[in-house]
């Protein structure tokens, strides 16, 4: 029986959670969750000067919004420095590493001479095979003994077999002369100790894999399965950056995309399952596999994101959507909903969900349910409430007083009212929208009446039917 799948997401807390990082986390989460495995989270905070608690908090908040739950405690890489150093010393003891006493000045002099002579600038330490009896009493780094001949093979599920000549790899420092471990060593030790079976990460780490494999081999540890995924590019095919718009995950929440739509869209960025564009989490977990990831960079497409987002809003359970709207308002720094507003929104949800592509669009369409009487129409809606229209509304209001409050009866009553005045209902619709919502783009007039109820509808119509003061 094969070992259970263990994946990990290992961001550096030096800034916001990039949308590319969010997709990497999602791929790891889907792969583990779809196989009953574990998805672990490690914060790679070894760069103490640039790592901040605020960035760590932002990463955790972003993953929480996206709905990517992790197993176990969050691992801090910096807190494991003693364990990393212990492995470096073990490699030194078993002859897979050596003490290097070369100073920074000597290394730079070597590189300058190599450049001048047109040779490789990969540093070749004179201490690699030095007799320990010749070692000075001075600070030293511990370097890995990289094989000098042959090649390192990276078997990658996405990129295929990648071969790197060992003459292209230097003897990597494992432990600096100040006794601090390097990032490359820390990653391998942490992945091994955490039992990671699949390393799914951006293809900007592909070259790192060759050097990391050297540590695995020197320690006699099993290699994980590697899957290096292409980066996300902007719509113009260039590396994603601020000029393309939002690149931080939190910006997408503030723009009002639902988390489920974001998960769906990110899953389709660089991975495909036939022609399926819109799918549920359950389907994504069942379908996701590494062989569906392409080798070419994916391009961010906001129109597609909006389309997927709109379909997820339409598919969502009303209570879940209300929860998402509340989280959106909080993230965007807007006023929270009152209890009456939440109740009204839940009643209105059935006529709001199908036509909104983002949560702000849905909230705008819900304006009629969220606002209070008296309604203040916006500039466009005010034009629909000219004296003639106000007169018509004041005539219609008493007829609605005794109507049976069902859609069929309301439609029949307004149709006969329009016919008696030798006009079409379309002529009534504009003033009714303005009266009930104070807007021109709204759900159907009858949906608004049903959501608002008889008393509120009549109160708004009475107010709108009064002559402008």
UniProtKB/TrEMBL annotation:
Residues 329-464 form the Aminoacyl-tRNA synthetase class I anticodon-binding domain. It catalyses: tRNA(Glu) + L-glutamate + ATP = L-glutamyl-tRNA(Glu) + AMP + diphosphate. Residues 5-306 form the Glutamyl/glutaminyl-tRNA synthetase class Ib catalytic domain. It comes from the Bacteria. A motif ('HIGH' region) lies at residues 11-21. Keywords: Aminoacyl-tRNA synthetase, ATP-binding, Cytoplasm, Ligase, Nucleotide-binding, Protein biosynthesis. A motif ('KMSKS' region) lies at residues 239-243. Its EC number is 6.1.1.17. It is an enzyme of class 6 (ligase). The keyword Ligase applies. The keyword Aminoacyl-tRNA synthetase applies. GO terms for molecular function: glutamate-tRNA ligase activity. It is found in: Cytoplasm. ATP binds at residue 242. Its main location: cytoplasm. Belongs to the class-I aminoacyl-tRNA synthetase family. Glutamate--tRNA ligase type 1 subfamily. Catalyzes the attachment of glutamate to tRNA(Glu) in a two-step reaction: glutamate is first activated by ATP to form Glu-AMP and then transferred to the acceptor end of tRNA(Glu). Monomer. This is Glutamate--tRNA ligase. It comes from Litorisediminicola beolgyonensis.
